[in-house]
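If you are new to this repository, start here. Below is one unmodified record pulled from the training split, so you can see the exact layout before writing a loader.
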Amino acid sequence: MKYIYIVNRFQTKDRTDELIRKLEKVSREMDRDFEIRVYETPEEAGTIRKDYKYTEHILTAIGGDGSINCLLNDIADTHNILSFIPSGTGNDFYRAVAQNVAAGIHRADIVRINDRYFINAACFGIDADIANDESFIHNRFIPKSMRFNASVVRHFLSYRKGRFLKVECNGEVYEGEVTTVVAANSQYYGGGYRISPESRIDDGKMELYIFDHMNRPKVAKTILSMKNAGHLNSPALKRMQTNRAVITASEPFQANIDGEALLSDRFDIEMIPAGIRLEYNPVFVESMLK
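And here is the target side for that same chain:
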């Protein structure tokens, strides 16, 4: 099967030529049938769905979780297979796949949120504010590994109150002021925060985490504990498994799905079991990361 590498120059910028050379070198060493498609602008990249609507290739996102999400939305409901090479800021989906997915082509769950899909996680509340803060997340003057943490510090210092949301799930309704809500299909988000340690991308289940409003010291403690899943012991946490949830508010509020920002006053979230075929080749990925 042919590999189509999707390289977005508007994202990879001055690393583009080096990435292309490495893709060519490693692909030839592994005797792959491949093609490299370079898109200069988001408008050009917007033609991917039209270009590959009726094909059956392995389309590979070169970048972070946002790049994977964009390609997922381009090829969902087609016969193509999703693959990726992690070279972004967070690479949270890669962390989970490397720990829990064997080499090969697998059926993976995806989640529909309004008219889009995600494969890793969606968050609402302070987490979305942090992840959507362009002044930190895409700041080239801050090292990639520190961007999310820098945004965490900024929003923690400005945090005063939570957001009033209504969450409907499993026949129950939660309505009140929250610090954050996370819908997880995979384990990590935010550059290594292990929000959902029991999540698997092929179990047909979505984990929903609702954190009640907390004061700043408790917010700081909870965020720091997420690296080792200590947040699961927080008395502010409501946790459940579900296939569907609806989150609403009286006015539009921010969400972040796999690193991409959304804005609405209602988010309908539904699990799509085995919704995409996913290819993972750890040898190829590790060769690209060297």
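Two things worth knowing about this chain: The two ends are 25 Å apart (CA to CA). The chain has a mean pLDDT of 92.
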